[in-house]
Design a protein that fits this description.
2 copies of one chain form a homodimer.
Chain A: E1 11-17, E2 27-30, E3 34-43, E4 49-57, E5 64-67, E6 69-72, E7 75-81, E8 86-96, H1 98-111, H2 117-133, H3 136-150, H4 156-163, H5 165-173, E9 181-182, E10 187-192, E11 199-203, H6 219-231, E12 236-238, H7 287-299, E13 303-308, E14 311-312, H8 317-321, E15 337-339, E16 342-344, E17 348-349, H9 357-373, E18 378-382, H10 389-402, E19 407-411, H11 416-425, E20 429-431, H12 440-452, E21 461-462, H13 473-493, E22 496-500, H14 539-551, E23 562-566, E24 571-577, E25 584-590, E26 597-602, E27 616-620, E28 626-629, E29 633-638, E30 645-651
Parallel strand pairs in A: 2-10, 11-12, 11-22, 12-13, 13-18, 18-19, 19-20, 20-21
Antiparallel strand pairs in A: 1-3, 3-7, 4-5, 4-8, 6-7, 8-9, 8-10, 14-17, 15-16, 23-24, 23-26, 24-25, 25-30, 26-29, 27-28, 27-30
Helix pairs in contact in A: 1-2, 2-3, 3-4, 6-7, 9-10, 13-14
Chain lengths: 664, 664
Amino acid sequence: MISIGNGRNRVIIEGVEPEIDGGRFPIKRTLGEQVVVEADIFTDGHDAISCVVLYRKNSESQWSEHPMDFLANDRWRGEFAVTELGQYRYTLQAWIDHFKSWRQGLLKKLDAGQDVSVDLLTGADLIEEATQRAVGSDAKKLKERALSLRSAEEGSGRIQVATAGELSELMAKYPDKELTTMYDRELVVVVDRPKARFSAWYEIFPRSCAPGAGRHGTFQDCEARFSYIAAMGFDVLYFPPIHPIGQTHRRGKNNTSTVGPDDPGSPWAIGSADGGHKDVHPQLGNLKDFRRLVTKAKEHGLEIAIDLAFQCTPDHPYVKEHPEWFRWRPDRTVQYAENPPKKYEDIYPLNFETEKWQELWAELKEVVLFWIDQGVRIFRVDNPHTKPFNFWEWLIGGIKKDYPEVIFLAEAFTRPKVMYQLAKLGFTQSYTYFAWRNTKGELTQYFTELMQTNVREYFRPSLWPNTPDILTEYLQMGGRSAFMARLVLAATLGANYGIYGPAFELCDRRPKEFGSEEYLDSEKYEIKNWDITKPDSLRDFIARVNRIRRENPALQGDWSLCFHSIDNDQLICYSKRTEDCSNVIVVVVNLDPHHTQAGWVELGLSDLGINHEMPYQLHDLLSEARYLWHGHRNYVELNPQIVPAQIFRVRHKIRTERDFDYFM
Amino acid sequence: MISIGNGRNRVIIEGVEPEIDGGRFPIKRTLGEQVVVEADIFTDGHDAISCVVLYRKNSESQWSEHPMDFLANDRWRGEFAVTELGQYRYTLQAWIDHFKSWRQGLLKKLDAGQDVSVDLLTGADLIEEATQRAVGSDAKKLKERALSLRSAEEGSGRIQVATAGELSELMAKYPDKELTTMYDRELVVVVDRPKARFSAWYEIFPRSCAPGAGRHGTFQDCEARFSYIAAMGFDVLYFPPIHPIGQTHRRGKNNTSTVGPDDPGSPWAIGSADGGHKDVHPQLGNLKDFRRLVTKAKEHGLEIAIDLAFQCTPDHPYVKEHPEWFRWRPDRTVQYAENPPKKYEDIYPLNFETEKWQELWAELKEVVLFWIDQGVRIFRVDNPHTKPFNFWEWLIGGIKKDYPEVIFLAEAFTRPKVMYQLAKLGFTQSYTYFAWRNTKGELTQYFTELMQTNVREYFRPSLWPNTPDILTEYLQMGGRSAFMARLVLAATLGANYGIYGPAFELCDRRPKEFGSEEYLDSEKYEIKNWDITKPDSLRDFIARVNRIRRENPALQGDWSLCFHSIDNDQLICYSKRTEDCSNVIVVVVNLDPHHTQAGWVELGLSDLGINHEMPYQLHDLLSEARYLWHGHRNYVELNPQIVPAQIFRVRHKIRTERDFDYFM
């Protein structure tokens, strides 16, 4: 029921977008982006209304405002820019604009040749009221206008004053907001740094970075690999966990339960006599080495991301120090991880239903703060969907309050609503189903959902063609061409993407067994010695793709993604563009790794800022070939044995006879 | 941010349907209907969850609960019935079900032949905890089960007890709700009487009911018309305003400004020296006459609906008694209604922005209560979109609190969002754009939006082929066939519909001028003397259509509406059905009033409960003709010069040789 206080407020504000779950969750933007707000705003009867979007930094108490424009069908739109990291709030305000109503009526009556003498007096009253709200010279001007409207002289003078645009502008500065409707929710924007929107990740096991076989790599060995990684154009370097690895139930090569004395164990089996989540595995180095690595990485344009895997081995110090953080079985052993009938006896999950949950939460936050102290600002979070949603919302919210630049990537390969929930509650980026979306239909449907629905307001997809856990059947069967196609798809469909290397650039495609997505001789259980100098490595190809991404702003965001029709289901075509169409990229990928495929692409030219009547040039940034296109339907042909993709930049300027020296 | 209290609650409830604007507005149901509630409900990790829908009458403090079932993709569904008029509340509750998780794990381990001795002890612990929550013999039974599971003897006995369905059922009765997630909103259902969902309205000007020309009809004359109206099968009889009519600026015949002494004026020009909104126009009778009319109508199965038109003529007593309820112009006259350049000097709108708005609201509520006292329970509200939304929400909410059986029909022919807002805030039924939806594409799109999207949760459409203000071009040009087609469409697309008679059944189709939707010699400005005995009247046709509506429950609701493909754009086909398909109605209408049209209908047989492999009979309830159909594609042909529509009842039972006496 209506509270009696606002009985005279007549404006309705509803259908606000963006708004996630009735304002329960924030939307996400990056520094410098616009927040475009739309709403249905209307009142009873015929009165005109005015409305503004109100916004402020969370830390400020004063709203700024920006007028909204009428679109159609009671829909209004306004916008504001976010220029600082952290949280902004926004809401809407609308009111009956009696002056605007009056002016519209006056103009119609004048058109109809009606007498408006009483109307002019009404207008004078409205202006005089505004005088009370106005300041300085504006107040004086308004007073003069009111006097003019009251002038007894008939004639065009009064009417010119009344209908002048200048008077409207002046009145708009001092609206009568006595009966204003405020939208009843304050909505939140989380503003991240640009890397949250645009990043290229490279995952590597530091222990495999030693020069020469048989040695355990160190942080220092990693540093020697920086120029190789930076030359490929990546800007985030992500390490699996770097903490001490447990001994109890340690897994051997290829995840066997028989383990030799030299088997290093899985980095995700965290905790040993050497320490836990705030310690470094001794064979990698020490904390000082780590801090130096972070600094050195920066010099190469690389930012170190570490893994937050909140789980323990039986050897983790927490087990003794905080037995209450684990679930105990009736036989007085700790409950290990299981997904019946599978058992993971090397892993003790933390029990978030413990009575001591507050202490547990506090400690896990301490872990994050510890690594922030070491210079880390990007965390890849392992299996966040097996810890409570409330916990993450609290943790990420708390960290970002003090460190708004921190990025959390959710590694949750699980059901869609769970993945979306994690994104809503705060994760900056999220892994996706990209690895398993291989056909045109699948890719089109999935990325339309991620990038063209309101999912994009909170879920920032990160596209990975492979990970240490995922060697897809498509890569297994498609070989080098498949690796190239998937790289181009990941890097151009997604502004955020990553690969697990050097397995990727070396096209490692040997599964543990037929039908498995596990790598044979997986790096998770052994130290590898990759030959990164192999001549058939994709390193140069990757470097070129990453350079194209850096040089073309169209590829640095996801929202402009648009799929285009092409009459061959093995070929996919899509575009991305900057808002002003000054940079337009059209990508064509042959999804068939075996055969040459050809077809006719249909572009929506006006959306891409292309003139229907003029030829235009498509410049393939991968091959440097240039094609002359005309109209909306054009031919493409791709041989996967050469390059299975083209990344075209649309170039409007074509040389014609007018460029010729002798032409006039 | 999360409040610290619920840190251990791990279940998320979101995406609840039905829910209007984040719970801001109630959904609507009628007595005895089900409320089916769905939501996305999930938790982290692999634990099983259980959830219930909670519901209660608004007046009760105790929740009832009903378990929800898992559908797919983290979606759950539950339902409850509403069995009393007024408001119900509902919400959802969900929790981790440790026993269910345990049982699922146990079964998988048993399948895999694993040792479960420790698991049985864990189960015994869970059962023992439930013992504390259980009562009476259940507690005893649970204690026994726990003991059995602890039994040292190996063997199938323990396992049978542990996995028995009986134990699951027992445990489900006493769930551990310590860490329960309550959905954070209580949602409201407004429960109306069945007539809110299913009604046939007849609009008539009482003053035109006198026998013989030139006389002003009275309430008593109306009573003489009841059997005629009831015989046509209507159940709501709606009168335009019955109050005293103003003299000042009274409009003459055909809405001219020249008015003769016998011109009765428009009934919507309310208020004269004889009184205002709580008075009866003296020529109709007095209050006692009115009350008798209401009673007599009931005897004919008719319920009287009156018009709430909250506006005044300059002669209305309010103008003198409450000058503060009107807007005053600088020349000290009252602001009349205008929509520049049009002026309506006979109408003074009430000024809802008055400082005295509380007194104004109170008085208007008194008007409604006054007519409730006279026995009225249905109000057709004139132009509600020109009065504040807040006012209606307060008024309707307040009235329905004490009189939940009252029905308010919103006559707002305005922009869609305004119409929807009025429905959301409380109007029971709403006029629609039906009059202007004449082609197959228009009808399909509009009624899909109204009846197959969440609009139906709050907006109950009322379909009127004509009103005193609306004589559509379709009726003007199409003649008798168009009237029949539009009647069938209104009465079968809409469970709620109405006509303005006798203009409708007499097929009055003379516009005031070409291009106008006003009637020539409109009844709004003069007393008519209709010849209701004309042999070409549609009264019998209307009577038959209304009887079909009463006899077929499929037509008594809107939610089952389904359009079917037909390969001729002049033919439209749709069906309605009861939930169990015991009553299935298929309607075909020829939208071309001039030519015979034929085509092939395609029905989705399984949705209609029709066997693909058996013939079925289509019984045209209008003509009594019967057709033998088979499969999903069948032929129809309609001659508009005979009847432009068929209302088929699907009959499954076809006589075959098996019905023959000599057959076995």
